[in-house]
Amino acid sequence: MSEEKKEKRKASSIDPCAVDLLRYAEECSIPTAFSRSDSLKPCPIGAEGACCKICAMGPCRLKSKDGEDALKGVCGASLATVTARNIARMVAGGTAAHSDHARDVANTLLAAAEEHTKDYQIKDVEKLLAVANNFGIDTSGRTKNEVAKEVAEFVLKDFGQQKGEVSFIRTATKKRQELWREHKLVPRGVDREVCELMHRTTMGVDTDPEDILDAALRTSLADGWSGSRIGTDFSDILFGTPKPIKSEDSLGAFQKKHINIVVHGHEPTLSEMIVVASEMPELIDYAKSKGAEGINLVGMCCTSNEILLRHGIKSAGGFLNQELGVLTGAVEAMVVDVQCIMPAIADVVKGFHTKLVTTSPKGRIPGAEHIEFDELHALEVAKKIVRLACDNFPNRKDTRIPDYGKTMVAGFSHEYIKYMQGGRFRGSFRPLNDAIIAGRIRGLAGIVGCNNPRVDQDSLHDYLVRELIANDVLVVQTGCGAHASAKSGLLRPETMELAGPGLREVCEAIGIPPVLHMGSCVDNSRILTVLTAVAQEGGLGDDISDIPVVGIAPEWMSEKALAIAFYAVASGLYVIFGVESPIAASPTVQKIMSEGWEKKVGGKLEFIPGKEEMLAATLAHIDKKREALKLRKYEKGKFGVEKVLMSMADRRKLEEAAHAHKGVGGV
What is the CATH number of the domain that holds 101? Predict the structure, then answer.
């Protein structure tokens, strides 16, 4: 490989662990997603949404130098129709992925409630009762299992329901619900909307691009306000609602003298059981019998986020680190379930001792060992997987574990964000709203989504986070975006030193970092819940669309990211995507999704590849929303008159006094 190519490879990540392991891959001629992205150039027609391949009369390539209307498909479909169909189908795929994940979690909750399995129990009764209250389910005088059974059955109907409205819609602001009903955007049922969107985008059905995109908005809402919300809330009920916990995120998370097991994917039902199995004395003894000092469980991608937030299990990073983990030579078993799993892992493990284990009946990989997961025998399956990893330890050869690592604090559920602003008895979103009103906090940003080897790994996440907090914007993150910030050391209280003076003052008073890790991909529903609470608190309008907030997915690659973008827009958010635009071929579609959607639902989606341009658009939108609310103009370091921010010590004194007054035990 030429020196020019080698230099390009070194620049493909800002993560020093990744750089070291990519250099090793080049020396050994081991292909990775990074090298394949160099050799496989994206199709310029398909990448911009100008290729139609939904019937055998095509594929029809509609890109033309003569303009948008110069070409039509064999059937007569316009470029706008084709572009709208293509992105709508991606939204359907992303919605199906998140919602099928949620269906499995809901069925697990039902099985636990009916005591068909002893491996799962309800860990957060308070969250269960809160969800039941949202649905008007009577909880008085009933056992937790009785309530859980009714909650699970109540929500499971959301998937197959043919008429009516999905359950969690009722938790949105009143204004938002009315707007959705006015425009016929309320989802009837998850499966119904996905099926209908796939139908209307087949050859010879819907050819009106605006109508197609409206249907995509409705389908995405079945994800954000049903599928993902179910996945988040039901996981909290079963496994515990996250609260701040300290851990690490790095490919240096592997241990040389321990059996290293990686759990990778998205569904927490399996990973929770592997956590339990890896800590069982009998299996630790078994590991030692194979010559190891113990068992080291490490997470990757969104499965990592699930067990990180609840157990503090170390992470080895996000999507683009999965092949690199194998390259360390230290992984006994790479255990995968569904979503974002590269089939290339099966090729990489051929040169190493690592066992690739697939576990989902929905996702097999040729060459992998398949141990099918069953919620009714969950712990038994988990123990089998851990034993397989232990048996593989004697086959380990040389290792190259990077000597890097950054601590982080993760686990900021919307419940904890409310609690941290006043404690158990005084918790509210009032302090956050007041800080925004006064200009201490300029606005909010959710930086989420994937990594994409078409851009330098983590570079856009890192740039935007640093610049936004320096401009007093409080950042929340999920998914691989959170991994990027964790690896850069941005998820620590010490990061407040990089924040603007107003944001820093708020973070110091509360005792939090200016970047909050809120969970996995489905946990973007937590962001919607926080924003809804902010709107309902008052002072910043009466809907999400009024709040100075922006959603950004700077390095996106997945259909799920588009589903998230669409439901965020439909909820009233301005959303920015980086990398390249899948609607670049059609100015008509771009106009619908920006100007048209802003008028219709108060949110819009724009694709902006440049990092400086993304930052400028974000700050301009936040300032525009501040102006519309008639808030004081943001000036760094200059704040309006407001209540004095209490320190953590002051708030603890208030809580102790409240406990003493009410005669209540510890929180």
Answer: 1.20.1270.30
pLDDT at position 647, please? 56
Average pLDDT over the chain, rounded to an integer: 93
Q: What is the CATH number of the domain that holds 463?
A: 3.40.50.2030
Predicted pLDDT at 511: 82
- pLDDT, residue 649, reads 62
Give the pLDDT of residue 424.
74
The two three-digit tokens of residue 325, written as one number = 């983990």
- The pTM score is 0.93
Q: Specify the pLDDT at position 22.
A: 95
| Domain shared by 376 and 279, yes or no | yes
CA atoms within 13 A on the CB side of 265: 24
Whether the per-residue pLDDT at 658 is higher than 70: the answer is: no
Long-range contacts of 120-124 (CB under 8 A, 24+ apart): 120/238, 120/269, 120/272, 120/375, 120/378, 121/238, 122/148, 122/237, 122/238, 123/237, 123/238, 123/239, 123/240, 124/236, 124/237, 124/238, 124/240, 124/241
Do 527 and 595 share a structural domain?
Answer: yes
Q: Is 540 a residue whose pLDDT tops 70?
A: yes
Q: Determine if the peptide bond prior to 268 is cis (ω within 30°).
A: no
Helix segments in 161-267, DSSP class H: 174-182, 190-200, 209-222, 228-239
Quote the pLDDT of residue 639: 80
N- to C-terminal Cα separation, the chain = 60
State whether 334 and 309 are in the same domain.
yes
Quote the tokens at residue 360. Answer: 């989902």
Residue 320 has pLDDT above 60, yes or no: yes
262 with 151, same domain: the answer is: no
Tokens of residue 120, six digits: 């799962």
Domain that holds residue 385: 250-395
Answer yes or no: is 410 within a domain. no
Residue 113 lies in a domain: yes
**Beta bridge partner(s), residue 516:** 476
Same domain, 210 and 276: no
| Whole-number Å distance between alpha carbons of 343 and 348 | 9
Contact in structure between 346 and 368 (CB atoms under 8 Å): yes
Same domain, 112 and 221: yes
Average pLDDT of the residues in 277-299: 98
Are residue 445 and residue 552 in the same domain, yes or no?
yes
Residue pair 292/260 in contact by the 8 Å Cβ criterion: no
Query: What pLDDT is recorded for position 659?
Result: 59
Name the domain count of the chain: 4
DSSP-derived pairing of the beta strands 51-52 and 60-61: antiparallel
SS3 content of the chain, % helix, strand, coil (to 5): 55, 10, 35
**DSSP calls for 366-415:** TTSEE----GGGHHHHHHHHHHHHHHHGGG-------S---EEEE---HH
**Are 460 and 555 within one domain?**
yes
For residue range 354-411, list pLDDT tens digits in order: 999 999 999 999 999 999 999 999 999 999 999 999 999 999 999 999 998 889 999 9
For residue 606, is it within any domain? yes
